[in-house]
């Protein structure tokens, strides 16, 4: 870690340039010739990224940051807080510590936390930052995590792993066996040290593919922040044999939307209906889960069409997603589009529809925005339909 970055004048310069264009700053003369200019610029860029994602780190003085990419790849504080809520016990070892955001929150509920990191410089940065943040119950270790596990040779209540999704050979990868460490290959070894394992993966990982690679999956948590899926959490318990529980979580500003169901659980056929008074669009975490029939059953809704994944009801019900009141509906055709939507300003969503939003806007000269929402979809008779709706903001 470059301790010269902690020079008060350099720290003031970094703070005074948060949000500035790095390319423009790079063309300026380095005001600190004794210090590497690119290192200062890297701090400005990474701290700018941390302002919204890591407000605790941003607000604390004398924090040192790794590269902007490392900050981008780390958990946000919101998702880290959720992960910490899943963990109980006395001890946890994080085999892929990184910038240490998750461990900071684990340490609020776990007495003993171990942070393992192969990158010597990053480990030193994390250790320094924990001191600045007044964290005393996290111990940092440098080196191969499996080697550290064997060297410490103790039982842990939890093992946490966030495998690297980049390979020197394959570039960006999505199967767990291609990540570092190779969790499927090492799983039995991990069980020698803990019966509970929590794995974080990218949201692009297919649930079926993940279940094919992992044993004893107890729960899969699909975590979205403000309706954008950020990560998947695979909760594993040694010798667990029941069906995995799928838990979708959308972390909103003042509310958490949770919907859960059993993977491969029994579901009765979902009824279809023409659009009724209200329209429901599941949040992104539910869409990722694939629980399209389960959500209809739990909320007693009907689907517009088997593959449309839009739901309807005559009576208004609370729902983990966007809710709309249908103001008008018509079959998709040239005369109808010219009559109702051409040259209008409206928000557009497509579900199970052959044209993209961009194509529709261009074709009918529809501008983005306004207070109305328009859904282009397919009904139970396989007709292309258009629904003009008003969004229901609070329920």
CATH class annotation of the largest domain: Alpha Beta
Number of helices: 15
Count of DSSP E strands?
18
CATH fold type of the largest domain: Rossmann fold
Average pLDDT level: 93
What can be said about the biggest beta sheet?
9 strands, mixed
> Which regions have little confidence, pLDDT < 50, spanning 5+ residues?
none
Instruction: Give the proportion of residues in helices.
Output: 25-40%
The percentage of residues in β strands lies in: 25-35%
Strand order in space, largest sheet: 3-2-1-4-7-9-8-10-11
How much is the radius of gyration in Å? 25 Å
Structural class by secondary-structure content: alpha/beta
CATH superfamily of the largest domain: Vaccinia Virus protein VP39
Domain PG-1098 ferredoxin-like: 278-320
Keywords: Methyltransferase, Transferase
InterPro entries: PG_1098_Fer, SAM-dependent_MTases_sf, Thump-like
GO biological process, one term: methylation
Explain how this protein is built.
The protein has 395 residues and is of the alpha/beta class. It folds into 3 domains: 3-69, Arc Repressor Mutant, subunit A (Orthogonal Bundle); 74-262, 3-Layer(aba) Sandwich (Rossmann fold), CATH 3.40.50; 278-391. It is 31% helix and 26% strand. It has 15 helices and 18 strands. It has helices at 8-16, 22-26, 37-53, 55-59, 68-73, 77-86, 101-106, 120-132, 145-152, 183-190, 207-213, 284-289, 292-298, 334-340, 357-364; strands spanning 91-94, 112-117, 138-142, 158-161, 166-167, 171-172, 196-201, 217-225, 228-237, 245-251, 256-262, 278-282, 302-303, 311-313, 321-331, 347-350, 372-378, 384-391. The strands form 3 sheets. It has a 9-stranded mixed sheet with strand order 3-2-1-4-7-9-8-10-11, with helices on both faces. Strand 13 (302-303) and strand 14 form a beta hairpin. The radius of gyration is 25 Å and the shape is globular. It starts with 7 loop residues before the first helix and ends with a strand. The mean pLDDT is 93. This is Class I SAM-dependent methyltransferase. Residues 321-391 form the THUMP-like domain.
